[in-house]
């Protein structure tokens, strides 16, 4: 987190089930009056109270913006009082109404539904969560390119939708989106030239289907320079990145990649060796040459 981040209390204004497995929650509140949009795929840290009917409480961010010290303070909280922390894309921002939309993928009740999804499924107007953010989602931003490749599963869909809607007239993008089935498809309004491929798992559990990786591997790419944006389940993201760099010959610095979730681990679990390696590589390769519009 950057030193400009501050804590905001978000109040649920309304909810909408936009597909059977996607819940949109609209948040308002005085703390959104000076919300600063930073990128189409901006994300935030959300905090959900473990105590029913209670607003989450987190340690204050140090004046010097030392996130590491803040995180140690957060971990030092008693477990029952320490809110769950999860990362989510801000789907859209309405500066006039001072509201933001965040889309939550629902997994049903049970072991595969985390605290954020369970909260979203039952959210009601007036409920409160906390937020630090927003931040840019990736360490890389697009440089000059002829077209953009977007690839991800439903967890990446809010960011992909925002990225498509932010395209300027004449900008070209090809998107591959993995979802459960046709009922999970969404419509987007964009000024760009977009080719959108919906990939259906048809009942196969998320994280167990090869449809996304197989579709990108089999795709014919247009000529010209490409900027690739890849997000979703970590192992699929890792496989796609290797394909784009090793098989397609795309410059590593032109591939933005983020593992949004891990098949057998939650955000509360420690980073694996692969996770740490991905993070270190992303930071090391974030060259200034690509960070231009």
TrEMBL record:
Coiled coil: none annotated. Residues 5-141 form the FAD-binding FR-type domain. Pfam families: FAD_binding_9, SIP. CDD domains: siderophore_interacting. This is Siderophore-interacting protein.
